[in-house]
């Protein structure tokens, strides 16, 4: 004999009061981030949410800009997400970083290619170096990589001068320039010396995008 259908009325169904807002924020985050694999990304989203960690969410939607035949999916927006999740530590566990990378639906092969550029051990990597390598992996020149770095690290509003402390800029620029065998060390030293003078002429010791472009033209 079949069981009778169970009937529920609205008064019998308890909806947790937090659920509507959680789902609303989740939906907004998914729309802004546009994950390739929604299920993979969702697992990372709710895992971070349950721990109170920074969420794997972009600040805004990014328009597709890739021109490569085989787009890896890596963007400035996704690197900024990783920066929010990892920058509280000087060194990050490679295994944890790889998990965050996967949760952003990025290919593991690209992650390993980036790691091979640094002589870190197998367990940890200095976060600022990984960020620098990620910006370099977006393609283009060293100047282009530094533009991404400044736009990710700056506290200025979007579209502003993208200022960061000179010491931070110099550390990253020096690191990336040493990976380019065609870039003379003397040229790097002269360039950074020019920028240092400019930063020291200001009270805040900051430099922006316009500063390092102008400095490039003067050496």
Explain what the structure shows.
- This protein is mostly helical and 219 residues long.
- The chain has two domains: 94 residues, no CATH class; 80 residues, Recoverin, domain 1.
- The protein is built from ten helices and four strands; from the N terminus they run H-H-H-E-H-H-E-H-H-E-H-H-E-H.
- The strands form two sheets. Strands 1-2 form a two-stranded antiparallel sheet. A two-stranded antiparallel sheet has the order 3-4.
- Helix 6 packs across helix 7.
- The protein is elongated.
- About 2% of the residues have low confidence.
Overall pLDDT, averaged? 89
One letter per element, helices H and strands E, the order comes to: HHHEHHEHHEHHEH
Total number of strands = 4
Beta fraction = under 5%
Instruction: Output the number of helix runs.
Output: 10
Major sheet: 2 strands, antiparallel
Q: Which descriptor suits the 3D outline?
A: elongated
Alpha-carbon Rg, integer: 22 Å
Q: Whole-Å distance between the termini?
A: 90 Å
Q: Helical content, roughly?
A: 40-55%
**Widest β-sheet, arrangement of strands:** 1-2
Q: How many domains would you count in the coordinates?
A: 2
Pick out the low-confidence regions: 66-70
Structural class: mainly alpha
Summarize the structure.
The chain is mainly alpha-helical and about 220 residues long.
